[in-house]
Amino acid sequence: MELVEAREGLVRLLVPKDGLRKRHFYNPAMELARDVSVLLCNALELRGEACDALAATGARGLRLAKECGFDLVVLNDANPEVVRLIERN
Fold this sequence. Notes:
The protein is 36% helix and 22% strand. It is of the alpha+beta class. It has a two-stranded antiparallel ribbon. It has a two-stranded parallel sheet with strand order 3-4. It is globular. It starts with a strand and ends with a helix.
């Protein structure tokens, strides 16, 4: 899997160069949805723990950790190759 760097909010992510392939999913068009998640968590002062069980590259969870100050963010995916990518990110 060839990786490229993407920047989203305050995080830098390694994402598949062909990001929309079924096996290694990253959709840059969903950045706005992830922005809204961060804004909502900050507006409601949500902290503590978060879980993203189908995290793909981990973009949402990593942003929640970095931009909202969650104490614990658990990220996972069904694809072991993608889990290794989450760990790198």
